[in-house]
Amino acid sequence: MSTVETTDIKEIVKQKYGEAAQRVASGGSSCCGAAPGKGCADPITRNLYDVSQIGQIPEEAVLASLGCGNPTALAQLQPGETVLDLGSGGGIDVLLSARRVGPSGKAYGLDMTDEMLGLANENKRKSGIENVEFLKGEIENIPLPGNSVDVIISNCVINLSADKDKVLREAFRVLKPGGRLAVSDVVTRGEILPEIRQSVLAWVGCIAGALEENDYRAKLAAAGFQQIEIEPTRVYRAEDALEFLSGQTIPVKLDPAQIDGKFFSGFIRAVKPQAKPTCCGPTCCN
């Protein structure tokens, strides 16, 4: 993908997610595809958090959720850990993570959109949670030092990047040895119509940029990760796909058989290997 195409996609994503944040701030809600209005029926984003989680955080954080999963429920966070959420949006997963790691831990959120960062910081203020920090930046260039994070989470964001290899290399860099990647993402299975992948609106809606599951595994391994697992959490049927794509500009008539079960929300786990012992003589010492 050319630099021009990468820049175009990044700017469109930034614009659409900025608009989504503004809608929430003015009393509306958001969908993965950034469709306007309340009561989003998007099959990707709906019904991801249970009542107990929703009750822990401000309503605006819930309304601004643009995810495809619930990484905080699956990441097995421990008290005292440092967590980083890539593409943190309105802050829902950061705030939930901060509660789980407790006062001795820390939760960072990284987002490139000023409007989302403003909304996230307002949600932080309303929640009263202090072990949270929102950072401005891009997931391809994480503004944190190497070996500084225990767990990286993300919710339907990595698929929006036009340079996923760089995202995964950066995630590997900032994780501590033994650190965990635990992200929710949209993943494809088998061939997908090129017309869907090439639609920028579908890209912003989390579909076009999604990696095929074997390609995802290969990119994680190339970045250095081990213990790679991809667990489907919600497989989309033809009616779900047609519902989501009904508002998109796709230049062909879609055959339900060509999209049924071809993409799913998945939970992706991987581990950064422990550092090898340093050799200090004829035999290696610990």
Describe this structure in words.
The structure is a single chain. The protein is an alpha/beta fold and 286 residues long. Helix content is 36%, strand content 20%. Strands 1, 2, 3, 4, 5, 6, 7 and 8 form an eight-stranded mixed beta sheet that branches. About 3% of the residues have low confidence.
Outline:
By secondary structure, the chain is α/β, with parallel strands linked by helices. The protein is 36% helix and 20% strand.
Helix content: 25-40%
Q: Beta fraction of the residues?
A: 15-25%
Number of extended strands? 8
Cα radius of gyration in angstroms? 19 Å
Quick check: average pLDDT?
A: 79
User: Main beta sheet, described?
Assistant: 8 strands, mixed
Structural class: alpha/beta
Distinct helical segment count: 12
Topology as a string of helices (H) and strands (E): HHHHEHEHEEHEHHEHEHHE
Terminal-residue CA separation: 45 Å
Task: Enumerate the spans where pLDDT stays under 50 for 5 or more consecutive residues.
Answer: 32-41
Give the CA-based shape.
globular
